[in-house]
Amino acid sequence: MNITMNVLGIETSCDETSAAIVSNGKEVLSNIISSSIKFHKKYGGVIPEIASRMQLETIAQVTDQCIKESGISRKDLGLISVTSGPGLLGSLLVGISFAKALSFGLGLPIIGVNHLYAHIYASFLNHKSLSLPFIALIVSGGHTSLFLVEDFDKIKLLGQTQDDACGEAFDKAAKILGLGYPGGPVIEKLSYKGNPGKIKFNCSDTKKPLNFSFSGIKTAVLYYVKKSTVHSPQTTDKIKYYGLSTMDHRLISDIAASFQEAVIDTLINKSLLACRMKKINKLVVGGGVAANNRLREKLFEKAKRGNIKVYFPEKILCMDNAAMIAGLGYQLFKKGYSSGMDLDIDNT
Ligand code: KG4
Ligand code: ZN
C-alpha cells in the first residue's frame, strides 16, 4: 500500500520567508516565497535585523497561505521540516521557533535540515529520474561548494571557496559598477549587451584544485574601473563612488560580461574536474547563481562533450525556498532521522 506523506517545509535562513507543502518528497503542492529584499536594497546587502523582523511579521501568514493553496488541510500533514542552518541567527531562530510551536500544537514530528543540502535536493523536485550518486555544485550568496553526494545522509565536501562566495562576488562587482543589489541578475542582464572577451579577468588559482577564490577577481574589477573612470570628482577609495555616471555604458556591459564569463568558466572547469576525479558522470547544480542563463547554457554544452549529464532546478527552486526543505526532510525522516523540541540552530 502506498502511504502519502505531506511535509510542511519552513525556510528562513536569509531574507526570504518561505513555506511549502511537498508530497512524498517529490510533488510540490504549494510553495510560497516572501522576500524582504526591497528593504535591504538601499544598504547594498541583507541587514540581519531587518530580515528577522520581517520574518517574524510574515511567517504565520505565509504558512496559512501555503496550506490554503496546497488544497490539503493541517490534519493531512505528516511532518514539519525546517532549515536549521547555515544562515542568519535571528532569521533561523524565527523559523525554528515557529516550526517547533506548530509541531507541538499539531502533534507532528519535526526535523531540522541543512540549507545547502536542501539546495542540492531542489533538482529532485524537477527531475523525477535523477538518481544518486552525483557531484553537486552549490553556488549562492553565502556559499560556493562542491560535494560528492552518495546518499541524502552521505554528502562529502570536495572543495569550497577560500574567501568570497560566488554570488557575493557578483554582488560586489555590481556594487563597484554602481548597479545595485542583488548583483547577479543585473550583471547577467547587462552581459547580453557586452563582449565577454573584451577584458581578460581571471579567478585566482587555489592550492587545492577543487577549492575556489573570488576575492581577487572582484579587486581586478575594482582596479579596472578605477583606471577607466575619467576625472570623477568623487574619486575616493570607496568603491560605491565608481559608477555609471563616470563610465561609458558600453564599457560597463563589457566589464560585466567579461567578469561573468571568467567566474562561469571557473565554476564549469572545477565542477567537470570533480566529475572526472570521482569518475561520476552526473552533475547537479543549485543555489541562486544557478539561475544564471549563461552558466546553464555553457555548462550543458561543455558537459555534453565530456559525456556528463547536468541537472538544474527550475529557476524559482534555485533561490531560497521551502519546497527543497520539505523534500529533503521527507527523505531523511524516511531514513529514521528526526529532531525534538531541543532542535537548535546548526551553523557548523
Ligand atoms: O541561494 P540564494 O537565493 O541565497 C543564498 O542562500 O545566498 O542566492 C542569492 C545569490 C545572490 O548573491 C545573487 O546575486 C545571486 O544569488 N544570483 C545570481 C543570479 N540570480 C541570483 N547570480 C548570477 N546570476 C543570476 N542570474
Ligand atoms: Zn540558499
Mean pLDDT: 93
Number of strands: 10
Distance between the first and last residues' Cα: 39 Å
The largest sheet, given as strand count, sense and whether it forms a barrel, is: 5 strands, mixed
From the spread of the alpha carbons, the general shape counts as globular
Order of helices and strands: EEEHHEHEHEEEHHHHEHEHH
Spatial order of the strands forming the largest sheet? 3-2-1-4-5
- The gyration radius over C-alpha positions equals 21 Å
Present as ligands are:
5'-O-[(R)-(carboxyoxy)(hydroxy)phosphoryl]adenosine, zinc ion
Number of DSSP helices?
11
Low-confidence stretches: 231-244
Content of β-strand: 15-25%
Structural class from helices and strands? alpha/beta
Q: What is the percent of helical residues?
A: 40-55%
Summarize the model shown.
The protein has 348 residues and is of the alpha/beta class. The protein is built from eleven helices and ten strands.
Describe the overall structure.
The protein is α/β, with parallel strands linked by helices and 348 residues long. The chain contains eleven helices and ten strands. The protein has helices spanning 37-40, 48-70, 89-106, 115-126, 166-176, 183-191, 215-228, 249-278, 293-305, 315-318, 323-334, and strands at residues 6-11, 16-23, 27-35, 77-85, 110-114, 134-139, 144-151, 154-160, 282-286, 309-311. Strands 3-2-1-4-5 form a five-stranded mixed beta sheet, with helices on both faces. Residues 231-244 have low confidence and may be disordered. 5'-O-[(R)-(carboxyoxy)(hydroxy)phosphoryl]adenosine binds next to α5 and α6. Zinc ion (ZN) binds at residues 115, 119, 140, 287, 320.
